[in-house]
Amino acid sequence: MKRKYELGGEINADDIPVTNHETIEDTKPGSVKDESESSSDSRSNSPPAMEMGGYSREAYLKYQIGKRDMDLIEIGKTIVLGTVDQSLSASKQVDRAAKQDAQLINLENLVHGLAQESTIDQKFSMVGSSLCFNIHKTSLKSAISSLNAKSSIDTSAQFSNFDFNILNLQEEQIEKYQIQAEDPFLEADLAYIFGLLTFRDNAKLLNKTKQFIKAYFVVSCRPRCFIWRYTLRKSGATHKKSISHLPHHIMTLIVDFLLDLCGIGRFDVPYLELERTSPFFYSLGAEDPEGIYQQLCESRDELVEFFKNAITDCLNEIREMPYLLDSGVLSTPLRGRSPSNSTITWKQYENLLKCEIENPTPQNIQNRVNFEHAIFTQLPVID
Fold it and tell me: What whole-number distance in Å separates Cα of residue 208 and Cα of residue 262?
């Protein structure tokens, strides 16, 4: 079967050179035997059986990947031959590992680009390595997601001794938590916003933290949807140029405010100088209050990271909230529902920003400006 390529003209499976004076017949799936493998387990150590008069390249590829000692050249050779004769195109598993994720290597394009009249030994190895890389990265993403979910649960339980209470703040502390206006962020009073919230009686620290952070962020900018453009990453940077890093002073004020609500904002205060009438002091108990206070102060750095992670999560979740043009507010996530004509989403805005960043033509710039102008012209009037 022949297929045309942009590079290298036409290519036939029978024309692909192989190493060690082999022929294509020698490299057919099922003809390679790994003598180092034990023959005791026929399922894992023997090539797959014939299917419909011929070997299945997908089954043979799975067999090669599942071996204890993988042969990258053999894996690459199978992929190249399977791509040329299109016998692997129907394999959902291989196709997913090959080209689904934009961050992974597109094996089909790689095979077509390498299919030229030259020595192909190293190219087989490159294709095999690419597939293994893609499979490994896909599995790693799944493992990281599971670890993050478990870590979130463990961390939430770790800070079960902390709780928010506005009475833990002294008068001079309340006054310092005023966020100054800085386009597009509006002036805000964090203590006032916190006072508007009502928490469930059994709400955990993580739930209360996210409820407060979201309550601030959904009203923090003008227009309110401009909060979509901000995130908070541990490295202080983001790989997405359409998203900016949250201003440092805003992040610091939020974290410091939450620490003060917990009672350990001023962790350098000796136990004997603590405010005896504060809810935090009473929460230390009567058995060993000074020892418990020291333990809580030692966990302060971990609590700071806990609050920063909550800020990142909230900003990510807010990007799923559509913006209503007629009322100028962020609404609940669509969850599969189609947006109305008076609704815009982050995806729409992000596409315009990406086009302008990647190709800053006058037209792309104007498209973004027109989009933002439509938002500003329908902003509700602030008295």
Answer: 12
